Amino acid sequence: MEILSSIQNGILTLEFNRPERKNAITAAMYQSMADALTAAETDTAVRAILLVGKPEIFTAGNDLEDFMKTAPAGGAIEDRSVYKFMMALSGATKPIVAAVAGNAVGIGTTLLMHCDLVYAADNAKFSMPFVQLGLCPEFASSLLLTQIAGYPRAAEKLMLGEAFGAQEALEMGLISKVLPVDALRAFAEGQAAKLVALPASSIRVTKELMKAARKAPTSVAIAAENIHFGKMLSSPEAKEAFMAFFQKRKPDFTQFA
Ligand SMILES: C/C=C/C(=O)SCCNC(=O)CCNC(=O)[C@H](O)C(C)(C)COP(=O)(O)OP(=O)(O)OC[C@H]1O[C@@H](n2cnc3c(N)ncnc32)[C@H](O)[C@@H]1OP(=O)(O)O
Predict the structure, then answer these.
(1) Name one Pfam family in it (predicted).
(2) What's the pTM?
(3) How far is the CA of 18 from the centre of ligand 1 (A)?
(4) Angle at Cα 167 formed by Cα 16 and Cα 4, nearest 5°?
(5) Are 162 and 127 in contact (CB under 8 A)?
(6) Are 40 and 47 in contact (CB under 8 A)?
(7) Which of 102, 198, 235, 252 has an alpha carbon within 20 to 30 A of 62's alpha carbon?
(8) pLDDT single digits (tens) 65-122
(9) What is the per-residue pLDDT for 84?
(10) pLDDT tens sequence across 123-153
(11) Mutation probe of ligand 1 site: the residue of 21, 22, 233 with most atoms within 8 A of C-beta
């Protein structure tokens, strides 16, 4: 099972479990998380959601082989499991806690902006190398990171795509606490348990109110990003970037105007 899913004491825990591929997320993994989140919406046994990886890796982002396979097929983004997962995550009415240790690449960082309580280990590394892959930001990261971190810092992270550590993520407001890697999971579970014990209706309304102002702009940003992202996935620049990754070499973008 590449996504471990369990419900215990009111907490739905979703755990990336593909360490041999650095927890890179395949279409099947997105689908299984989308299904679990959708089911959780109406399951009274679930009062909080916890998203975790392994102590050495959160996720290497979208599986790049999947990107190469699915790109030319095209089709509506709404039919793709990544879209179903991200819509289920961003539209979840129950509180979501994320705990990041190791690398959180691409969608691994983007998805955090749709969670509620976000904690990181001192070994966490965040990056959004969309431009480096010949792509563009996705799932409202172009909007939300700008709101969270301010334009100059967001531009640096989204244009240069360089990795940054937990301390910088804390300063920019992407996460709310840094913990020793060995303490991260227990701390996040404890925070989720606190949410479970609180009145679910108050949590639900608080979340709704807090997210109300960004709801419409988030949808607009996602739709605009999708148009570009879908086209860019099959661009020569992206193909060169994906091939270069698997051939363990630097991409050569100078061949493209
Ligand atoms: C809509 C969504 C958008 C996005 O998410 S865009 C972002 C896509 N993701 C990436 O570009 C990240 C690619 N991966 C990496 O940069 C690196 O990995 C890490 C920094 C995460 C870790 O580096 P290291 O510790 O040196 O591990 P390793 O040797 O690169 O990876 C171990 C094995 O895992 C495979 N792998 C890693 N990431 C992915 C991936 N994203 N998709 C498919 N496979 C991946 C490798 O190829 C390799 O495999 P082998 O052992 O056979 O050489």
Answers:
(1) ECH_1
(2) 0.97
(3) 11
(4) 10
(5) yes
(6) no
(7) 252
(8) 999 887 555 567 778 999 999 999 999 999 999 999 999 999 999 999 999 999 999 9
(9) 97
(10) 999 999 999 999 999 999 999 999 999 999 9
(11) 22
Q: Which ligand 1 atom is at minimum distance from the Cα of 107?
A: 5
> What values do phi and psi take at 106, rounded to 5?
55, -120
Whether residue 49 has pLDDT greater than 80:
yes
ipTM: 0.99
DSSP-based helix, strand, coil % in the chain, nearest 5: 55, 15, 30
Q: Quick one: which atom of ligand 1 is closest to the CA of 127?
A: 7
Ligand 1 shell residues, CB under 6 Å: 21-22, 24, 60-65, 82, 103, 105-107, 129, 133, 138, 245
Give the whole-angstrom CA distance, residue 241 versus residue 71.
13
Which long-range contacts does 253-257 make (Cβ < 8 Å, 24+ apart)? 253/134
Q: Whose CA is nearest to atom 35 of ligand 1?
A: 21
Start-to-end Cα distance in the chain: 43
> For residue 12, what are the β-bridge partners?
7, 49
Please state the atom number of ligand 1 nearest to the C-alpha of residue 63. Answer: 42
Alpha carbon separation from 82 to 114, 118, 198 (Å, rounded): 14, 21, 31
What does the pLDDT average to over 214-241?
A: 96
Distance 21 CA to ligand 1 centre (A): 7
